[in-house]
Write a structure and sequence with these properties.
By secondary structure, this protein is an alpha/beta fold. It has 3 domains: 220 residues, Rossmann fold (3-Layer(aba) Sandwich), CATH 3.40.50.620; 76 residues, Orthogonal Bundle (Tyrosyl-Transfer RNA Synthetase); 65 residues, Structural Genomics Hypothetical 15.5 Kd Protein In mrcA-pckA Intergenic Region, Chain A. Helix content is 45%, strand content 14%. The chain has 18 helices and 15 strands. A 6-stranded mixed sheet has the order 1-6-5-2-3-4, sandwiched between helices. The chain has a 5-stranded mixed sheet with strand order 9-15-14-11-12, covered by helices on one side. β14 and β15 form a beta hairpin. The longest helix has 18 residues.
Amino acid sequence: MTNFKSGLLRLLDERGYIHQLTDAEGLDALASKEIVTGYIGFDATAPSLHVGSLVQIMLLRRLQQSGHKPIVLMGGGTTKVGDPTGKDESRKLLTDAEIDTNIAGIRKVFERFLTFGDGPTDAIVVNNDEWLSKLEYIPFLRDVGRHFTINRMMTFDSVRLRLDREQPLTFLEFNYMILQGYDFLELSRRYGLRLQLGGSDQWGNIVNGIELARRIDGTEVYGVTTPLITNADGSKMGKTAQGAVWLNEEQLSAYDYWQFWRNADDANVGKFLRLFTELPLDEVERLERLPGAQINEAKIVLATETTAMLHGREAADTAAETARATFEQGGLGDDLPTLSTGEGVSIAQALTAIGFTPSNKEAKRKIAEGAVRLNDEIVSDPGLIVTGGKLSLGKKRHGLLVP
């Protein structure tokens, strides 16, 4: 823990959000004396963000809670290019209509976490397509491109790792970091923005933007990155064997979202409570000290608090009660995933259709492992035709099949 003067950096520090700061002393002094406007960019590659973006959403929430102003930057322009960071291949290029639809879906999540309006600390949503699509190529290369060296860009992980694996990196993607740096410059001009926040994988892009603002406008701006949040197996948070953990209810039910947090690894419970809930720190410390199997009580609190923040308290309590009825009493809660089977489907098809497995091939593998039960009886035949009953995969995934 560091002795920061500003409420912003003290809050971020004590709850575990800080990985890197570009100028800790300068940002601390600025945040102590005035409202700081900060932003995070979100590309619109899908109709919903997933839980891997949640630490960034919470970062904007903490910024606002500390008396500062968040900007949610929708990447309507940069989505047309595609961020190569962490990617093995180029993203599919989306149409303008697809991007607009995705932005509308993503925006709904932020309304759960931030207060929007016209006040000095109210959040606003901005789309970088407003300026990126209007840029003229030759003037942009002359005025902005000359501040970026190929030598340095080749050292960034987003470029170097792709080339090390001998995977193609298009010229389109190579421009992404220049456009992100330009976003920082443009936002500082339009909104007096002084801070960019992001994940640790965005460090190079953030530093580029800081240097660009200094060189072109002489503006002092700052950057903060968060640690990489991983699952217990070291994989990037946000993906599971069943697919992405989406934040929009249209893509993932409140119950399944609750279950994701309930199944958190023991070692992550304290960290997740700090990052993703607003429980007081002394309560977090009490929960993470619970011995042995009692840590499950902390996981239930984690699941219920995170679900309440995203889906509302009533949905969170319903999910918790459904889980209790299902697992503790052997009953069937009202909020379990449900699949209509019509005149009947194979149990392998049912596993995939209800979302327990990503494919029928995986469903058959789980059946062969003895991990699938119908009405608490192990199923061995993947071709078994089912019309109704309680379908279970392992000990923690349960659903209802109805005719």
